[in-house]
Amino acid sequence: MTPAPAHHWLRPPADGSPARFAYGADYNPEQWPREVWKEDVRLMREAGVTIVSVAIFSWARLQPAEDRWDFEWLDEVLDLLHSNGITVDLATATASPPPWLTTLHPEILPVTRTGETLAQGARQHWRPTSPVFREYALRLVEAMATRYADHPALVAWHISNELGCHNIYDYSDDAARYFRDWLRTRYGTLDGLNHAWATSFWSQRYGDWDEIQPPRLAASHANPTQQLDFKRFSSDALKDYLRAERDVLRRLTPAIPVTTNFMVMGGTKGMSYPDWAEEIDFVSNDHYAHPGPQRLDELSFSAGLTHSIAGGRPWFLMEHSTSAVNWQTVNLAKREGELARDSLVHVAHGADAVCFFQWRQSAAGAEKYHSAMVPHAGPDSEVFRAVTALGRTLEALTPVVGSVREPARAALVYDWESWWAVERDSQPSSLLDYRQEALDWYSAFLSLGVRVDVVTTSADLTGYDFVAAPLLHVVPRALAGRLEAFVRGGGHLATTYYSGVVDENDHVHLGGYPGALRELLGIRVEEFGPLQEGVEVRLDNGLTGGLWTDRIEVTDPEATVLARYGSGDQAGRPAITRRVPAGGGSAAYVSTRLGGEGLSEVLGSLLSGAGVLSELPAEVRGRVELTVRTDGVHAYWFLVNRTDGPVACGTVAGQLMTGHQEAAEEGLVLPPRGVAVLRVATGASPFGPRVPGTAPVE
Ligand code: GAL
Question: Does some domain include residue 694?
Answer without folding.
Answer: no
